[in-house]
Design goal:
Elements lengths: L5 H24 L10 H19 L11 H39 L5 E3 L6 E3 H16 L2 H15 L9 H42 L5 H43 L2
Antiparallel strand pairs: 1-2
Length: about 260
């Protein structure tokens, strides 16, 4: 290698680093890719494979002073913000499943039964873990991971590096979608949670009519049995609602990527 080629190599490496920022930030916040059990090295390789061709196709030029400058710092911040926004919107789809699981677990009396979520590495309820795995399976079955990569690549056309800050409309859409996440979580939990509340009301009436009966010994097994049966009956309906909300999350991520 000639000494005159070294500046070109440095510029090429900086372009590679820039290309990895937006996909890497999106994969960090997105479901499946952002799981704690996914190796960081694999995430970096996928980010490099996705970002470098997209940056090259966008025709972006580095700032005159390189990335280690004020314009370069602003450029990096914009890339991180866009990537995190795209991944965070998709993460809301799985958060709705966890919210529904927490509501059902509390209604069943399983709020104390928690386990480690392999995707986030935090403790979640047993029902929340079940719905989270169901949402992950639906996300992968619908090729959501491939759609995410397609959204990231398309975002370089609408939000090229250097002008990559989301608009106020996109930010407002993310906030409104966050409120829909809570509504979706309650909608998913409604078929099971409503019936469990009725079961608890019936046990309360029985407890008032027979004060000598031990409600804890009778009510908890009855609520658990009713919850398990209702989960088996309502899982197809809950899966359909989850799939619809995940589709809405992908559409919202596409709107964010469009600026």
């Amino acid at each position: 290698m000639n000494p005159a080629d070294i500046p070109n190599v440095e510029a090429m490496l900086q372009l590679w680093m820039l290309g990895m920022i937006r996909p890497g930030a999106a994969f960090l916040a997105a479901p499946v890719f952002g799981a704690t059990n996914v190796p960081v090295q694999l995430r970096l390789v996928i980010a490099l494979a996705v970002g470098v061709p997209a940056v090259a196709a966008s025709g972006m030029a580095l700032p005159a002073d390189g990335l280690v400058s004020w314009p370069g710092f602003i450029l990096i911040i914009g890339e991180v913000v866009v990537g995190l926004a795209i991944g965070f919107v998709l993460q809301m789809g799985l958060a709705a499943a966890l919210l529904a699981g927490e509501a059902i677990s509390n209604a069943m009396g399983l709020g104390f039964a928690s386990m480690i979520d392999p995707l986030s590495g935090t403790a979640s309820s047993a029902i929340g873990q079940f719905l989270s795995m169901l949402a992950t399976a639906l996300f992968l079955a619908a090729d959501g991971h491939l759609v995410l990569i397609d959204i990231i690549v398309d975002s370089y056309s609408a939000l090229p590096p250097g002008n990559a800050f989301p608009s106020f409309g996109a930010i407002g859409g993310i906030l409104r979608f966050g409120s829909l996440m809570f509504a979706a979580g309650l909608t998913i939990a409604l078929p099971v949670g409503f019936v469990l509340i009725l079961v608890q009301m019936i046990m309360g009436v029985i407890g008032r009519s027979a004060p000598a009966m031990n409600l804890f010994a009778v009510g908890l097994p009855a609520t658990l049995l009713a919850g398990v049966v209702l989960l088996g009956m309502a899982t197809p309906v809950m899966a359909e609602t989850l799939a619809r909300f995940l589709s809405d999350a992908l559409d919202m991520a596409r709107l964010v990527a469009a600026g």
